[in-house]
């Protein structure tokens, strides 16, 4: 009954009607054939490029210099010939990237969380939020979760929920949401949150993979096994297989990974059958290696275009992530294309002294079998030096630390100097996330 009241109330909010309209469109387009979907994408891309050429000074100048006109975009292959947009260009050209036919005082300033360095500032129009909400609702429908169902968030916030204003607390109550501050994951706060969830019984948990993992370990330690949501949604960080296994064991429910970015919103979402579906009706996603679109199965950089952002268009934007397209269709039957994996960010990769790439999950598999390790972080300033930092939940001997170091050393070889140390804590990013891998060695794809 409550979700019905919630949905009726939401229609009265700004953007509520638009969200419902977008949701109806997305529920339809998810079943289009691959050819039909590509025609929809091409039409939206042509409209977007024409708008950018006519109204956005940055793109007008860039395309003119490259000898490109919107009428040249007659196919997706033509679009893939457009120049890339980099984060550095966004930082240096913020006013010139804002469309002249949008009133600046009606735009919403936004910024990335700064997980990998300096935050990126940009603008969005109101429609950005309504399209994004529609993609969330559609994906959650895949898992049997409706708007207004109870949801608990383990999220980055600047204060705990009891300290919010009455308006924010009223809104959270109306939306059936409860929050645990990811900046303050103390034992006492996690225990308090756990006791609330046992009574409140949310249908969905959502949070950073690292935060949910920390909470799951707390529940294991306390012997709490009766928090059983319908499913868990992880986002904003790379979800490792050991983390997925832990969450499914502790909460007795499936885990769906949600791939998104602050700049473009939702880009891909896992269905109940595990397919990592690209939201291709709202985002055009390419995987690029050596400057060219890579075939399915090949690793490359993510190049994303938001099909519904016009105030500040992101066209062929390199967001710093690394992914692989999947060739086989998903068993769920939806023709939406799938990613095989979002591997991480370009600076989440590690390189051995002899030039071999090392997947970041190598460390997840090493430390998952060591109950002494609560958290770890790996830092690489160059190919010949690697630092491993461990937060342990019990005393460990010098011999134990040396054995762990040697495990890493064997994988990286004698050309890399590996050091390992125990630390009391690891600092979170400004967005409240934990970074397992910090690498200043950028691989070239």
Main sheet: strands, sense, barrel = 12 strands, mixed
Mean pLDDT across all amino acids: 88
Uncertain segments: none
Helix content: 25-40%
- Give, in spatial order, the strands making up the sheet with the most strands: 4-3-5-6-7-8-9-14-13-12-10-11
Alpha-carbon Rg, integer: 23 Å
Apparent shape: globular
Structural class: alpha/beta
CATH architecture label of the domain at 349-439: 2-Layer Sandwich
Terminal-residue CA separation: 52 Å
Sheet-strand content, in percent, reads 15-25%
Fourth-level CATH superfamily of the domain at 349-439: ANL, C-terminal domain
Specify the number of helices. Answer: 13
Assigned CATH class of the domain at 349-439: Alpha Beta
Number of strands: 20
At the fold tier of CATH, the topology name of the domain at 349-439 is GMP Synthetase, Chain A, domain 3
Would you summarize the structure shown here?
With 445 residues, this protein is an alpha/beta fold. 34% of the residues lie in helices and 24% in strands. The chain has a domain of 91 residues: ANL, C-terminal domain (GMP Synthetase, Chain A, domain 3, 2-Layer Sandwich).
Descriptive report:
The protein has 445 residues and is α/β, with parallel strands linked by helices. It has a domain at 349-439: ANL, C-terminal domain (GMP Synthetase, Chain A, domain 3, 2-Layer Sandwich), CATH 3.30.300. The protein is 34% helix and 24% strand. The protein contains 13 helices and 20 strands. The protein has helices at residues 2-10, 16-29, 34-55, 57-65, 76-79, 87-92, 126-141, 166-174, 187-200, 209-222, 241-251, 361-367, 398-412; strands at 108-111, 121-124, 151-155, 177-181, 204-208, 231-235, 255-261, 265-270, 276-278, 283-289, 292-293, 299-306, 317-325, 338-345, 350-351, 357-358, 373-382, 385-392, 417-422, 437-439. The strands form 4 sheets. A 12-stranded mixed β-sheet has the order 4-3-5-6-7-8-9-14-13-12-10-11, sandwiched between helices. Strands 19-18-17-20 form a 4-stranded mixed β-sheet, covered by helices on one side. Strand 17 (373-382) and strand 18 form a beta hairpin. Helix 2 (16-29) crosses helix 7 (126-141) and helix 3 (34-55) packs across helix 4 (57-65). The longest helix is centred in the first third of the chain and has 22 residues, at 34-55. The chain is globular and about 70 Å long.
């Amino acid at each position: 009954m409550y979700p019905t009241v919630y949905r009726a109330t939401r229609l009265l909010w700004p953007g509520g009607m638009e969200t419902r309209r977008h949701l109806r469109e997305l529920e339809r387009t998810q079943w289009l054939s691959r050819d039909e979907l590509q025609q929809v994408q091409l039409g939206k891309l042509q409209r977007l490029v024409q708008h950018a050429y006519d109204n956005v000074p940055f793109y007008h100048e860039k395309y003119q210099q490259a000898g490109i006109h919107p009428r040249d975009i007659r196919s997706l292959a033509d679009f893939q010939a457009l120049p890339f947009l980099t984060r550095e260009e966004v930082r240096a050209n913020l006013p010139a990237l804002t469309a002249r036919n949008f009133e600046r005082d009606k735009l919403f300033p936004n910024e990335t969380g700064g997980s990998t360095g300096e935050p990126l500032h940009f603008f969005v129009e109101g429609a950005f939020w309504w399209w994004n909400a529609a993609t969330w609702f559609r994906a959650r429908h895949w898992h049997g979760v409706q708007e207004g169902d109870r949801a608990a968030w383990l999220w980055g916030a600047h204060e705990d929920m009891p300290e919010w204003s009455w308006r924010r607390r009223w809104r959270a109550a109306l939306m059936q949401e409860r929050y645990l501050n990811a900046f303050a994951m103390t034992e006492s706060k996690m225990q308090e949150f756990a006791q609330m969830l046992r009574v409140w019984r949310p249908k969905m948990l959502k949070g950073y993979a690292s935060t949910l993992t920390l909470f799951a370990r707390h529940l294991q330690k306390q012997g709490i096994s009766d928090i059983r949501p319908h499913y868990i949604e992880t986002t904003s960080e790379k979800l490792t297989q050991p983390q997925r296994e832990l969450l499914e064991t502790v909460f007795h429910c499936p885990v769906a990974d949600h791939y998104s970015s602050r700049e473009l919103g939702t880009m891909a979402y896992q269905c109940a059958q595990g397919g990592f579906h690209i939201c291709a009706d709202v985002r055009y996603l390419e995987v690029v290696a050596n400057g060219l679109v890579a075939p399915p199965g090949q690793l490359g950089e993510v190049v994303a275009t938001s099909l519904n952002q016009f105030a500040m268009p992101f066209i062929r934007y390199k967001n710093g992530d690394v992914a692989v397209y999947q060739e086989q269709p998903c068993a769920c039957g939806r023709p939406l294309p799938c990613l095989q994996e979002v591997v991480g960010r370009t600076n989440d990769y590690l390189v051995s002294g002899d030039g071999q790439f090392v997947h970041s999950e190598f460390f997840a598999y090493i430390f998952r079998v060591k109950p002494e390790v609560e958290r770890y972080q790996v830092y690489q300033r160059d190919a010949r030096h690697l630092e491993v930092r461990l937060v342990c939940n019990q005393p460990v001997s010098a011999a134990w630390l040396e054995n762990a170091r040697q495990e890493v050393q064997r994988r990286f070889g004698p050309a890399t100097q590996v050091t390992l140390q125990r630390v009391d804590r690891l600092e979170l990013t400004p967005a409240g996330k934990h970074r397992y891998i910090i690498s200043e060695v950028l691989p070239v794809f």
